[in-house]
Records
---
Amino acid sequence: MEAADVGLFAASWWPYASYEALNIAAYLSLWLFMWDDEMDSAEFSSLINDYDQARAFRLETLAYARRCLVAGVDPDVPDVPEHASIASFGPIGKAIFTACTSSQIEALLKEVVFFVEMTDVEQQVQIAGKLPTVDEYQRRRMGSSAVGKQGQVDTLIPLLYARYGTLEVSMEKAIETLKTSVTAFELSAEKLLGQYGGDEELYDKLKKFVHGCQCACTANLTWR
């Protein structure tokens, strides 16, 4: 844990967060990394080779996450699941339930559901042995973690190579995609800040929000 420098990781991602919020975000991130290893790492789990068990694991995870985050939902779900990777969400979920508003919890739960669903899609692709299209991959990637399986080929460059047939063009297309995203972000940020330049307090908050989004895009580079 010391070698991972979780404190730097969290601070790089959320530089404006309070200590309490940063602590919750750090532990939530660690849980996501650990849980994802159960899905895609043969070194830590057998679920990668057993879709039915993996699906049951995902359903149990979502049921427990809802139990922790939404009061009174699914009372029959065990208070503490047997699997440690699911049960470890408990303290995090309770902290989020205490610290966040109902709308914030709803938004987070929606993202957790999307994340879990995309691991299902990813496993189905792996089992089928068929490469997804670039568009299918990009949608799935929006809900997956930052770490790919060992030997995984359904990542952006190989998929672009399958489409265009040369590494040079594939790299150019990947860089073009990145540049287009950066430009779109900068234009949106400029437009947003320009609309509220007359309100100093709101403008400062929006400026922090924009910078926070930039940090979220570059945080792992800072951390590593």
---
Amino acid sequence: MDETAVNQQPDHLGASELGTKEHWDTTYVRELENFSSDPTDEGTIWFEDAGAEEKIAEFVVDTLQLVPANGTLEKGQLHGQDRSDTTLPHPRVLDLGTGNGHLLFALREEGGREMWNGAELVGVDYSPSSVELARKIWQQRRAAEAQEAEGEASECDNAEAFDQRSKGTTNSSETDPIRFMVWDVLNGDPNDLDLAEGFDLVLDKGTFDAVSLSREPFDHYQGRRTCEVFPERVVPLIKPGGYFLVTSCNWTEAELRQWFEGLSGFRLFSTIQYPSFSFGGQRGQSVSSVCFQRVESGRSD
């Protein structure tokens, strides 16, 4: 894709109730009620038919290698730099528009929970009901992990070995690997996220889709649409060399590149492939996942 095509934004989507906060507040109030009645009902998993969560988790572990086995990276890349036998710092991951938190749960299970010991996984959403639901689901999952660990302890002859295997399953809030908070990517103060240098990885599974369906103008951004403001709000959340992985059912890979690549401070890093289909002589995917890397200069070259 040439530079002109990248820097030319696609046509806007039509407005929809899916682009309103009222819709998502109502949705998560209902899903909270459903979860309270049936703890096995954790709510909607977006893009489940395409297996998006599994593919995203595999990509993060196998391609980005943020948490290689045993905490070392033998032959791979960390923030775009070739590394060999390098001990990784604990990665920081931010999930924008976390909903029920399911993507972070799937990510932590990929490759084994022990790989994520010491990591910081943060899910944010502008709907308080969403955050309440995610916290309740996480509390239930943590209780199940603790019960599982107790069962393993009763069967484990080597107490020291068990201690190493069970790290990260404690219920202590000081070591909780996942936390959820109410925060709006379009209006929130990044300092509320303990931003420091930024996150190693920011995830977006459907949030930009919802933002793109809103017609709300931003007065303090010269009246631009929310989808036009979104990319520049995401960039500062990511440390230089870090990654932004966006998954969409409304935008193609080429269109996502137009929105985020080039002037926004990202360069294309990789994509995730899904089953394709043919229609009208054209081939496409029902879901697109594109990974961008933040460049220090703010340019894609």
---
Amino acid sequence: MAPPSATTPESGTNGSYPSTNVPLEPGLSKSQARGQMAKFPGPPTFTDKYEERDYLKGRLAAAFRIFGKYGFDEGVAGHITLRDPVDPTTFWVNPWGVAFSMIKRSDLIQVDHSGKIIDGGNVRLLNTAAFMIHGAVHEARPDVICAAHSHSIYGRSFCTLGRKLDIITQDSCAFHDDHVLYSRFNGIVLADKEGKEIAHALGDKKAALLQNHGLLTVGGTVEAAVFWFMSLEKCCHAQLMADAAAGGRGYESIKIDDEDAAFTCKTIGTPLAGWFSAKPMFDVIERECGADYLQ
């Protein structure tokens, strides 16, 4: 069952509709909640699109350093893309063959809608799969600023099961009714058709489990897309362990009911929650790398 404050009828109603004005914490008044939300941080805004591009490319470079730190690289596989704020029909991506842990802002390459590299660093090699998947996602989803995909170990392991994630932990509630299973595998994504099929399967969700392949997450900020990927990877890890432990005892893991999962998702599964949850990781990588990734 959802918390009592989520189902208490508003005064003046017939009692059949739950309140839509719920304090963030028990005992917190609505005016106090509004005051705290007004102070809550959010992504920076820009009036100059070129300044915004420069800033976001720095965040993308930091995202690759984070992926490298957590071992999300597998040879030359994996990619994160950023929609260009100056020309939104193009995106920035990592050059193929450059280690995630070494990527700098100046290394990133800009790709147009046809897959042509139009700007970027010295290494101008484009992973075809990166263009086919991300190009289709960016085209289908104007709201997506960043998309992330790699062959992380727990994500790709879970994707062999051909099933969606069970909602068994608080963290997994962020993906309640907000992730899909793409249940086909046709080898490396080199065809425009499959990229479009993946984008179609993703729909308006924040994440996709690509069967026999790996995870794909998207967001309205670089930070959100990266955090959703990190969190989904950990949720896959948690479920693999929970299923193994429960199965060994002849049990099943306990699922969170839909009402509670949906209620929790409204707190931890929002775009702002994704952005804010990633902030500590980006702060740490900045401290560890210094200004190197911004070169």
